[in-house]
Amino acid sequence: MSKSDNKDLIKFLEAFPPESREIALWLRDFVWDLYPKCNELIYDNYNFLAFGWGPTERMSDIFCSIAVGTRGVIFGFMWGVKLEDPDGLLQGGGNQFRSLRVPDIRTFPTTAVKKLLKQAFENSVATLKGRPQTPNGETIVNRSLRKNGAPACQNEHQPSAAKSIRCRILYLLLWKKRTFSMNTTRARRTSKMIMLAGYRVLNVTKPAKKDWGKC
Q1: What are 169-178's pLDDT values in tens digits?
Q2: Tens digit of each residue's pLDDT (9 = 90 or more) over 85-116
Q3: Structural domains in the chain (count)
Q4: 78 belongs to a structural domain
Q5: Can you list the alpha helix ranges (DSSP code H) found in 155-202?
Q6: Exposure of 209 by Cβ count < 10 A (0-12 exposed, 13-18 middle, 19+ buried)?
């Protein structure tokens, strides 16, 4: 399992250009070699492919991720805003996600990213607050969002991978965690309204209503 368990990922990557596949797989090996006991979570979305690592099987515990879209590959940190980044590598707005675009593995800042990864991993473990780090070194695949087996690059109005991930993060925070201090019904209605607004602002094709619960 773990690093060698790449059959599903290879299949998902077939929808993207060869150069993007090469970069994504190189970055995957880079992270696996550093954190072999963490779990890889793969999300085969309807307009991009994302996979990340965390100390548990939960998406909310992911500390770094790789996203492949029509505009290339990005290497991101779920809570990048909390990281010390003296080299100014990380880009992005908002109050959580930060990333760097990876156009060529030959120019990838390996040393600096290792330091960022160390911080991100430690922060992720600290948020567990006693929860066990399980499972251990496994690959977990979520195939719920691809429609009718369509390739990831089929939609001509696809957003960049970074924007799509920000939408998923917003959805996670407002829908899955229900952070609003109000009753559940109102929280769901409000979170859906904000999420739909995010899709309109970022020019992202929103999922069908039946797929809301799968995001």
Answers
A1: 545 544 444 4
A2: 999 999 999 999 999 999 999 999 999 999 99
A3: 1
A4: yes
A5: 161-171, 184-201
A6: exposed
